[in-house]
Amino acid sequence: MVSNAVQLVKNVESVVSLPTIFTRIDELINSPDSNLTDIADVISEDPGLSVRLLKVANSAMFNFPAEIDTITRAITVIGTRQLRDLVLATKVISVFKDVDSDIINMEEFWKHSIASGIMARILASLRREPNTEYYYLLGLLHEVGRLVMYMEIPDLMSRAVTNSIDSNVALHQSELSVIGFDHSMVGAELMAAWNLPESMRDAICYHHRPSLSLNYVDDAGIIHVSDLIVNALELGSSGESDVPPLDEQAWESLDLSQFVLPDAIEQLENQYHEAVDIFLEDA
Amino acid sequence: MALIRISNIKPGQTVSTDVKDRSGRILLSANTELTDDNIKIIKSWGVVEIDIKGEVNDAVVDSNLTRVNPEQLQAIDLELSKRFRFLNKSHPFIHELFDVCLRRKLSAKGLSQESIDG
Amino acid sequence: MTERDDKQELMQLRKRVDYLERINQQYISTLDTLNSLGDIHGNVKQKRSPQHIFSSTRQYICRLAHFDLTAFLMVNEDNNSFEIDDCVPLNACDNLQETVDQLIDRGEFGWALNQNRICEPQFRMDGRRILLHVLASRTRIRGMFVGVLNETENVPSVMTLGLISAILYNSAYALESAMLYKMVLEQNEKLESKVVERTQELNLAQQALKKSNEELEERVKLRTAELSSSNRKLMAEVDRRKKIEASLRQSEEELIVARQLAESANHAKSDFLSKMSHELRTPLNAILGFSQVLEMDEEFIQSPNAPFIDEIRSAGEHLLNLINEVLDLSKIEAGKIDVQMENINFGEVMRECYALINPMAKIKNIKLIPLAESAEKIYIYADRTLIKQVFINLLSNAVKYNRENGKVEIKLENESNQINISVIDNGVGIRDDKQQFMFQPFNRLGVEASNIEGTGMGLVITRHLVELMDGEIEFESEYGQGTEFILKFNPGFASFETAANKTEPSRGIVSSIKGFTVLYIEDSAPNIRLVESILSKWSQIELHAALSAEEGIKMAIKLKPDIILMDINLPNMDGYEAVRVLKADASTASIPVIALSANAMQKSVKEGLDSGFERYLTKPLKVVEFLKLLGTLTGQVLLK
Hints:
The structure holds three protein chains of three kinds.
Chain A: H1 5-12, H2 20-30, H3 36-44, H4 47-58, H5 71-78, H6 80-95, H7 106-126, H8 132-141, H9 144-152, H10 154-166, H11 171-179, H12 183-193, H13 198-205, H14 217-233, H15 248-254, H16 261-280
Chain B: E1 2-5, E2 19-20, E3 26-28, H1 36-44, E4 49-52, H2 70-83, H3 92-106, H4 113-117
Antiparallel strand pairs in B: 1-4, 2-3
Helix pairs in contact in B: 2-3
Chain C: H1 3-36, H2 38-41, H3 50-64, E1 67-76, E2 81-88, H4 93-106, H5 108-113, E3 130-136, E4 141-149, H6 158-296, H7 298-302, H8 306-333, E5 341-345, H9 346-364, E6 367-369, H10 373-376, E7 379-383, H11 384-400, E8 407-415, E9 418-425, H12 458-468, E10 472-478, E11 482-489, H13 496-501, E12 516-521, H14 525-535, E13 541-546, H15 549-559, E14 563-567, H16 575-584, E15 593-597, H17 602-611, E16 615-618, H18 623-634
Parallel strand pairs in C: 6-8, 12-13, 12-14, 14-15, 15-16
Antiparallel strand pairs in C: 1-2, 1-4, 3-4, 5-7, 8-9, 9-11, 10-11
Helix pairs in contact in C: 3-6, 6-8, 6-14, 8-12, 9-11, 11-12, 15-16
């Protein structure tokens, strides 16, 4: 019996491990000595990754006015740090490729995640966040906790689902009450296990209740709102059949006007299909 | 009325809706005629595509809200409301979101399961 | 483990430590930089100007990388275009504009604007790398930073780029801050000047108000003073008016009383005159009447006493004149003279006047020179009675105020539209200094003390009468030589009527007549005797007398006379009433009644004729007229 999220993650750690290429690129980026070419070389070692990166660089996500044909150019256009996050995002889906479930449709799951990532990126851009790819990554990763739970404790999850219908509550609330922890906690533990920054951990952990976050209210808030919007638009599904409740304080904190919504959603639509094609292709 | 990529617009064409940048700043009001100068301005703000009067569509845009009959509308509204039941619909953000979702459902261009699969 | 491995490990560790130290230093300097970014914002002295922000930003950035060119493009909020607000070096500005235009056209500029980080576009400026970074606050894009790297320079590291980004964000905020600050200052200034303006206005207004308040007070005081003064005046006026009213009322009452007195005095005068006229005329009636009777007596006419009758008659007539004069004056004054203008033969009038004046003239042996023959034929337009009076007056004056053996002459001049008649005497004349008083009543110019008779009314009356006849009177006099009175009248013309109007005294009677009865109602015995003596010439005429109206009525009913004579002034029932009774009674209604009265007033005559009298004869009786009337009424002729 798994008593908490930490335990759960520990159980799957071996299966679900952080791609090494990410760590290598991360180091290179942080090193003052390294340059663009070094990073480009590392990426080029993984052809699949390279192709995917170029596709992304040329997609509607970036809307670059000219064609990007080299990794170095892609790095220039996308940005170095941004690239690192994008690499992980690109890779993370393959991390879970062996995960299968009768309870959940993987494709739908990733569609939801991709859409959340795009929306998070759009919202971050509106808030003038410099590293928008970071938010794409967050969006992509925010629900993986659920994947882990579906892998490891399917029965409990099933019960949680039933309970959510019967008790008329959101799924994540049902998770908490039935299992004792929810997918956001699990997700956060996974980030920790992957040695990813505290910011990522926090943002994912509190994406259903951002106000509770100590230091990363706004990051969590962005993910929270993105998840909500994508749920409302029914782009893919993460198991949540209805739109989860809004943390109104978090929304206020983001200081966004509700009228950005139509444009943001339009931008999402512009980028979504292409992104799904790129990221789920041969996932 | 058609969405034309910024690289394809020409002076003399007329914009059918307001041209805004990503943050909502109005660069050109609806029904303004395009000139070299204002095309330059639109470009400098990173606008990707704009609505031009009388042109063939670059992208498919369709909103046929008027074609919906009241029964359909009511059914869709009801369904949507069920999904939104955990939310306070009077909250401005939620209200806007609900509205957008409703429109999306009503328009031919829907991001429904079917169109994605196809 | 070999020593070699350890050494390698140590070297690696050292490398690592070096690396970490370097990283550390970088981080520290980064932190320092970040700490001091406040400089960019500037202080009050630097006035937070965009220029200062640009230059201090530039300082920081250029420490981090080697830029050939750095420029800040700001959004023109009016048209949303990007303008180069700051460029170093300045001479590269045109080049830069070209480059920016290219970037915009390629879409790389717009793309970079939305990236929130340092972007390197594909396009290069003369082969040198370009770095773009949006200048934006959380709320609004404010501009774009453009940096051109030196050709030797590589792209800065991620950390450096991050730092540059942080600096530029800071600058964007500073610019926004400066702009807002400027706006606030401007608003403040505007506000201040507005406040000053308003305060001034307010002051002025206050002053104006104070002034007008003072003025108002003044005016109020003035008004109050005026009002109370007016009030006092009003009260005084009211008092005055009341007093006037009171005195007016008093005067009114007095006037009423006075008028009443005047009226009663007038009445009294009229009554008196009437009475006097009557009293005087009645005896005169006897005198003149009887003298007329005597004149008709053929026997008496033969006797040597006959001329005495003339004298008597003359005197009587003069007395009558005097009475008439007094009566006339009052008539004139009362405006009651009845003027009957007609064409009068001057010669005829003169003969009558001369006849009357003769006795007077004889006394002083004054010669009355007769009229020229031509004068006798002249007609004038005047009133017969009045013209006679005028001439009688003038002639009597001419005689009265003449010397012994003097002469009076009448001359006539006939101008086409005017007859000039002069009465000339060669008497004493009138002194120059007294001439002005000629026509004054009662002023006899000093003759009062003399034995010359006169009322002093003559000339006054004369002039009135002349004027009534639309004539004029003047006089010329020379003391010691004589006096000439000149009268001017309108000419008349001859007509047959005048001949017929002559009343010639007839002295012959027709003896054989048809008889008739006359009833005379009269309370005065002498008057009865007079009529009796007149009618005694005809034996055929039967005369009855009654002394009162009541008796007369009885007798009339009984006798049914042919003619009734009635005195108006009867005791008890008067003549007017009596005749009405007679006329009312069927048995006496057809009998003609002749009024005999001393009352010659117009009013009385009219009343008489209205009451029912056939004719109204005035006393003293004109016998001839009387007899003619009787003849007419009985349808025969009594006199030859």
